[in-house]
Amino acid sequence: MAEEQQSPKSKIADREEQILAFWQKDNTFKKTLEKKSPKGEFVFYDGPPFATGLPHYGHVLPSTIKDVIPRFKTMQGYHVPRKWGWDCHGLPVENIVEKELGFKSKKDIVDHGVEKFNASAKETVMRYADDWRKIIPRLGRWVDMVNDYRTMDTSYTESVWWSFKTLHDKGLVYEGFKSMHLCPRCETTLSNFEVTQGYKELTDTSVFVTFPIDGLANTFAVAWTTTPWTLPGNVALAVNPELQYAFVCITASNAPELPAGNTYIVGADEAILKRVFGKESFQFDPSAKVGSFTWNGQAVSFEAKKGVLGKTLIGQRYRPLFDYYAKEGALQNRDHGWKIYGGSFVTESDGTGIVHIAPAFGEDDYNLAIQEKLPFVQHVATNGTFKQEVTDFAGLSAKPKGNPKETDEKVAMHLKERGNLLLAVPFTHQYPHCWRCETPLLNFSAPSWFVKVSSMREKLVAENKKVTWVPKDVGEFRFGNWLAEAKDWAVSRSRFWGAPIPAWRCQRCRAVRVVGSIDELRKGTTERITKVTLLRHGESMKNRENIMDDSTDKYPLTHDGKKRAKESAERIQKEGGADVIFASPMLRTKETAEIVGKHLGMPVSIEEGLREVDSGDWDEKKIRDPSVKEAEEAYYVLPSEQHYVTPRGGTGESWKGVEERIMEAFYRLLEKHKGESVLLVTHEGPIIYLEKALKGLSLEETSRLFKEIQFESYAEPITLYFDHVTNKLVDLHRPYIDDVLLSCEDCAKKTGAGRDLMRRVSEVFDCWYESGSMPFAQAHYPFNHSKRSSFNPEHGWLTKSSGFPADFIAEGLDQTRGWFYSLLVLGTALFDVSPFKSVVVNGIILAENGAKMSKRLKNYPDPLEVVEKYGADSLRWYLLSSPVVHGEDLRFSEKGVDEVSKKIFGRLDNVLAFYLLYADSSGTTRYTLHATHVLDVWIMTRLNQLILGVTDALEKYELDKAVRPIGEFIDDLSTWYLRRSRDRIKSDDLDERLHSLATLRYTLHTLAKVMAPFSPFFAEYLFDNVKSKSEKVKSESVHLEEWPSAGKVDEIKIKEMEEVRKIVSLGLEARTKVSIRVRQPLGKLKVKSDILMSSPRKRGSSLSPDLLQLIQDEVNVKDVVIDPTIATDVALDTTLTPALMEEGQFRELVRTVQEMRKKLGLNPRDEAELQVKAEGLSVRFIEQFEQELSSIASLRNVVRAETLTEGGLQQSFTADEIVLGLRLSKE
């Protein structure tokens, strides 16, 4: 089968790619970050996506929203850093790896090896990162994807550790045992908001089960459950102490399942009786307490005797349905089991009024078990299978993914065979599934680490009320109500690929220690971890003069260099100081080390291995010195591998040699100072190649290090931690962190021996905790003490916070119980304030038929194909102008994108083309803005109105309300202003032509700025084409421009033009009704005064002559009069005089000649020759209009001829009475 032909890339897509290439070459985005920002900082947080797949519409939409606001704020004069991030940990990544490795259970991972599994996860997590780095910019988004943050980075995890310890110290973290939801496939508990993301409709088997009462013959308590698989774990029954209960005695029965003489205890409410016994027919006399029903077609009579309160049943024993655990004498609290207890959670609304209690599988159950000291029976393992002691069901999955009710039905059948099943009925309900692997969850009591959100509810609700939510109801109701009922957050997961919970437990005394930093970890170990601080020397005269040199006695520090060294000394002391200091033998490094050593009160040792790179013949030469310039340039263009091994300056060192030298010194020095804090003062090159070796960087990544910000400033400390067991930098992931043992201070105090007694707990963090940490963790807070640190939450009378809180964030509706929630909880708990001020919440994009978008069904167009076809701007505009930007769902329609492409960008492109056609060909702007014509005045006030409206909407984050008026303005500009201004722009009157062009140019120039946040590509294209020659030098990009300020809006002018256009519309409609084409002039249009409604102009007053002239021109009438006596809104005088008919014929002639010009491909500046073959009256007609025709149709001359010259184009006019010939005029 032949391969499908891919649709060719559109012209608009080609143009966008050219603009993208310009931005990248020009570093335009970087320039927007570096330009002056008089309004200060605008803080934006970017929620991290997973890079385990390609971007889809769920990414395109929020990414577009996230691009609009920062662009707008940048143009307003704010500095808006936006840093990309990657979500790297958690079940989403683990599930992908498990599928690829063919694993079915957690045991498969353990058997495979955690180290190998996590290595695969690390490789997987950035699999599509390069694709994202291409696609996101192609969508028009500007964000720093080079200096990105990754939740798996050691620095990020260290900040997560700090937050956890801080919460622990505040009493907001505890280790507990609670009933939660467990994914049996992933074998980990989930947080309550993770559970809400996976509800699906299921039809389960619910059962009414009979429990034999001890001491009462043939008497049974009846309980209802939708989870029959939990019944082997039953240890109690619960009743509501204040509810009435009935003893339902079967007085007569033909149904063998319900023999006469049996008594059933259920709630006394008639609705319960009918629920339990009325599956077929049911009759009941409440006064006599007797009734009847049919059971499997057999008649049964009953009497509801002994109405009692539930509290009288409390303490009554019953016989277990299953005795797997009841027969165990060693079962803790066994004597408290298999009794009836009181519980206020029992209601009459469903079931029987009696609840079966299995403490291991329900929140109310577990709480009652704690209260009453019930035995704890957990007959299902964390993998969801019945344990071996449950002999009748051993090994069965409690809730099989393929058939969730299979085991329930087997339990029901077992109970039926034993006579304990009263009834089994289907029950359809919303059931929670794992948000990642879609396995049905189990309610399961398990240990976990919790953040005590319940103690923060009031504060969270109060902080949320300060946030601006778009739409408002999402924050007020959906999110606000969730916060008001927020439960403690289970933040630990019994998994592998995640930031480890930093808690260590003593194996002897069980004391727990929570660690908040790697340095704290180092100090708790026994010479396992060494802290290494790398410090480049301060600025020296060598650096200032750009000299290559490795001599030991030249080039001291400059004044600035000494100052920076002192600042670094203070920072190093703040970060814990150092135990030993080693320095390169060069003068600049020795001076730097001595300044630091003096501040710390420590001596400095010289280490040859830390010296500067030997540049051979280039030593003592300035960079780019004429004598070495050619050799230098040749060296720097060598391929990476060759550059790495080639000696500098011919006889000097290669970078490979530098790397080997400094690594030898590094290992040697650290071997002597295990577990200590070591400061190495050296040079830029040796530091970079030390990092290359320790971090396993590629040569390309190493090359980028030279350009990174950490080396833009001298004497900037870099802290690393080295693990002497792995012989690598400290990796906080499992399994390495699991082997780090800490000393127990409690045991040391009590027994004098506490070394290596504490082992880390096995859990890792919920990945939502990690993503919620991004405001501070991306900046490595509080460990990054650099002046360039982007995050400082401290604020007061004399200090101002930076990087916190965010002025703006945006994500989808699903994040109300995801990222938004984790951000708010952690931000408020740590810093006592909401970490964001404004939120835009987008809805969900569905397929065109309203179904969920599905790769399998291919029910939606690929976003990249849409971009190739219509351009990224069209897709952005389509999304931004829809209700999806304020929380509503959108049925995606490719036709909608196509319509945007044509009606917005196609239409505006035509306006631009017309402008360029008539603009001064020299490219200068000698047009002075002088808006006096009624159309110019109107379009200028409309432009001011647009600027005000768009600005106001953007300030309120109402994106659709910001976008739609631009489309309306473009329609006004194209279909009214330009339509009515064409003749002025073509006019022979120079002033009129230039003034109209000046207005059009200014309008397009300003419109480009207004459109820039929404359609960055087209705005750039438009701006570039209407820039003056001088602007092309100083105005590189529309995105470096200031946001336009609005002038005065004249509402009267706008209203008047609305009236004019309304009258025109009515006039043209009247023409259509009488079938008179618009090119045929008419004598008069009467307008009823009642339709002139503008205010504050007096109702019914006449329009100005200029406005009336617009009506005349557009409707093509000789006069417009106001007449209050006409019956309709407008009335046309349809009398056609000979003069009017002749003028109409002339207009047809003009149209014909213009069409001929178009067919010949002539532009307005091309002069043509028109040959006319005519006889009789037609000759007079041509002569009468010859001059006017020549002017309008750009004709050099009109020639009458008996025979038309060959060449050009020939066409008949007015039923062959006139034959026209048109060709390009020759000079």
TrEMBL record:
A motif ('HIGH' region) lies at residues 49-59. Residues 18-532, 748-888 form the Aminoacyl-tRNA synthetase class Ia domain. The keyword tRNA-binding does not apply. One of its GO terms (cellular component) is cytoplasm. GO terms for biological process: isoleucyl-tRNA aminoacylation. Residues 936-1082 form the Methionyl/Valyl/Leucyl/Isoleucyl-tRNA synthetase anticodon-binding domain. Keywords: Aminoacyl-tRNA synthetase, ATP-binding, Cytoplasm, Ligase, Metal-binding, Nucleotide-binding, Protein biosynthesis, Zinc. Its cofactor is Zn(2+). A motif ('KMSKS' region) lies at residues 852-856. ATP binds at K855. One of its GO terms (molecular function) is isoleucine-tRNA ligase activity. It comes from the Bacteria. Its EC number is 6.1.1.5. The keyword RNA-binding does not apply. InterPro entries: aa-tRNA-synth_I_CS, aa-tRNA-synth_Ia, Anticodon_Ile_ABEc, His_Pase_superF_clade-1, His_PPase_superfam, Ile-tRNA-ligase, Ile-tRNA-ligase_type2, M/V/L/I-tRNA-synth_anticd-bd. It catalyses: tRNA(Ile) + L-isoleucine + ATP = L-isoleucyl-tRNA(Ile) + AMP + diphosphate. It is found in: Cytoplasm. Substrate binds at R536, H537, G538, E539, S540, M541, K542, N543, R588. It is an enzyme of class 6 (ligase). Monomer. HAMAP family: Ile_tRNA_synth_type2. PANTHER family: ISOLEUCINE--TRNA LIGASE, CYTOPLASMIC (PTHR42780:SF1), SOLEUCYL-TRNA SYNTHETASE (PTHR42780). Catalyzes the attachment of isoleucine to tRNA(Ile). As IleRS can inadvertently accommodate and process structurally similar amino acids such as valine, to avoid such errors it has two additional distinct tRNA(Ile)-dependent editing activities. One activity is designated as 'pretransfer' editing and involves the hydrolysis of activated Val-AMP. The other activity is designated 'posttransfer' editing and involves deacylation of mischarged Val-tRNA(Ile). Belongs to the class-I aminoacyl-tRNA synthetase family. IleS type 2 subfamily. IleRS has two distinct active sites: one for aminoacylation and one for editing. The misactivated valine is translocated from the active site to the editing site, which sterically excludes the correctly activated isoleucine. The single editing site contains two valyl binding pockets, one specific for each substrate (Val-AMP or Val-tRNA(Ile)). This is Isoleucine--tRNA ligase. It comes from Candidatus Taylorbacteria bacterium CG11_big_fil_rev_8_21_14_0_20_46_11.
